[in-house]
Design goal:
Number of domains: 1
CATH topology: Rossmann fold
Number of strands: 8
CATH class: Alpha Beta
Strand content: 15-25%
Strand order of the largest sheet: 3-2-1-6-7-8
CATH superfamily: HAD superfamily/HAD-like
Structural class: alpha/beta
Order of helices and strands: EHHHHHEHEEEHEHEHEH
Shape: globular
Low-confidence stretches: 2-7
Radius of gyration: 17 Å
Mean pLDDT: 92
């Protein structure tokens, strides 16, 4: 399993690109973390972001880097307590059986994602997410795929892979660009509303059992 620093590319029919916060997890875990550890600053940065005064990247970086490093173990513990969305483990096994890579792409914290996935991380082809350092007084964040407005440019990650068709699974505003570059989109919450507003085709989903069943039917009809 790669954690985002490998250069391996797949040359095959399908690759699944999947968000983590609010997609693999039932709740928006990064937002929950900010509400737990820096609630007042989160409220302030949210207003600034929605008013267009700062970017999402600026907001997330300032929030993470305002948290003392001594609280990092608490953050990892917080993520460990977050429930995964129903059907995810079976979905991972299903993709492994079909030799389809699952690439997790998230604007969250990579170390926290790895901790929460546990043994399932070994079945994931790669995890791309910002890295956090807790060596100084305050946490610091670094991303190898930083975009102009986000800490992770999901489309840049997609471009690392060779495939005939991409599947995007997401729920939020950070998944819009990923969805626009995918052949098949599974959307819920904000992403589903955005797809509706722009007249784009997608599959609505509640949990990963829905995604697995739809892909199974699709690949049975059109395996290539």
């Amino acid at each position: 399993m790669s954690t985002g620093d490998a250069t391996r590319k797949y040359s095959q029919p399908w690759v699944v690109f999947c968000d983590f916060d609010g997609t693999i997890t039932r709740e928006e875990t990064l937002v929950g973390m900010f509400n737990t550890f820096v609630p007042e600053l989160y409220a302030q940065r949210s207003k600034q972001m929605y008013a267009g005064r700062i970017t999402l990247k600026e907001a997330v970086r300032s929030l993470i880097e305002s948290i003392p490093s001594v609280r990092y173990p608490e953050i990892l513990d917080y993520f460990m307590r977050q429930p995964l969305r129903a059907g995810f483990e079976d979905f991972v096994v299903f993709l492994e059986k079909h030799s389809v890579p699952l690439v997790v792409v998230s604007g969250g914290i990579r170390e926290a994602i790895l901790s929460r996935l546990g043994p399932l991380a070994d079945k994931v082809a790669a995890i791309y997410a910002p890295q956090v350092s807790a060596e100084g007084a305050f946490m610091r964040v670094h991303s190898d795929f930083e975009g102009s407005t986000e800490l992770i440019c999901k489309v840049d990650v997609m471009r690392r892979y060779r495939y005939e068709k991409a599947v995007a699974v997401g729920n939020g505003i950070t998944d819009v660009a990923m969805a626009r570059h995918a052949s098949v989109v599974f959307a819920r919450d904000f992403l589903a509303r955005w797809m509706n507003e722009h007249g784009l085709a997608y599959h609505r989903w509640r949990d990963f059992n829905d995604v697995r069943r739809k892909l199974k039917a699709l690949w049975t009809r059109n395996p290539g």
